[in-house]
Specification:
Helix content: 55-70%
Largest sheet: 2 strands, antiparallel
Radius of gyration: 18 Å
Strand order of the largest sheet: 1-4
Strand content: 5-15%
Mean pLDDT: 85
Structural class: mainly alpha
Number of helices: 4
């Protein structure tokens, strides 16, 4: 009870949801890259702007009512289950102007850019979450070092 009350407050739920989203996005990018030579393959996508907007809304709800549970609003790709865990389902990326000769819409350059961006935000969220848990650990031990 005490531990969950400490981890359900502050930035911890935001960081945990960000890690879950990024983990799923990295998995999706790997799947896209693995299918680069699969004829007719359509790339998957996860809309980071929509996810960040949903996080912002959840933070606004939390700001108005600090005791409210942290729930990311459900959308096409992201939803919070009844246990409060984030569930992520990639959607097919719409075909832009380019379909390659094998019927795919996969741009390796786009995937590499998405990989770099997602990797950086994942490392940042992991570092911040580690610092949060280090602070809790120090408080429990009663030490500063």
């Amino acid at each position: 009870m005490l531990l969950s009350s400490m981890t359900d407050r502050g930035s911890t739920p935001v960081l945990i949801n960000t890690l879950v989203f990024n983990q799923n996005r990295l998995k999706m990018i790997a799947e896209n890259i693995a299918n680069i030579h699969t004829p007719g393959y359509r790339t998957k996508q996860l809309d980071t702007a929509a996810f960040q907007g949903a996080l912002r809304e959840a933070l606004d709800v939390r700001k108005r009512n600090p005791k409210a549970p942290f729930v990311v609003r459900s959308g096409n790709e992201v939803r919070t289950d009844r246990f409060g865990s984030l569930s992520v389902t990639p959607s097919d990326r719409p075909v832009d102007n380019i379909l390659y000769h094998d019927g795919t819409n996969l741009s390796i350059e786009r995937q590499m850019a998405d990989l770099a961006e997602t990797g950086m935000t994942h490392r940042l969220a992991a570092t911040l979450l580690r610092r949060n848990f280090d602070s809790v650990r120090k408080a429990i031990r009663g030490t500063v070092v």
